[in-house]
Amino acid sequence: MLNIVLVEPEIPNNTGNIGRLCVGTQSKLHLIHPFGFEINDKNLKRSGLDYWVHLDVTEYQNIQEWMEVIPNKSRVFLLSSHATKSIYDNEFRDGDWLVFGKESVGLSQEILNLFENHLTIPMSNLIRSFNIANSVAFVLGEAKRQISL
After folding, report:
1. E-strand spans in the chain?
2. Does the pTM of the predicted model rise above 0.90?
3. How far is 41 from 56, CA to CA, in rounded Å?
């Protein structure tokens, strides 16, 4: 099982889509407060459809609380458009933690400083970043591909 971590998600539709993706890939979703929406937001439920009840999800009040449950910090991968190592140059394993920042600004430098593994999704110079739900799908798909080989 892969662990998808959303740090301070802001847009309920994105979180709902990611939750649905986690159900479909048998991944666990970890949500770190504060959120930009209420967890019972109708847009969250709409984009997650009726799959939300099947989602393995845990909420944390802050980064420190989440960090206490990580068994091996070397298997935590932070996604950032500023990273230099591509997701395609990384070797993913079952149980890895894939961490994504809030939609408006990504991961803070403070959080980036907590872990060594920073990855990026290669993209055209014409954009700054991908939508977070698309980013999770890219990375989760590549990790699942590698693990199933």
Report:
1. 3-7, 28-32, 57-60, 76-79, 85-86, 97-100, 118-120
2. yes
3. 18
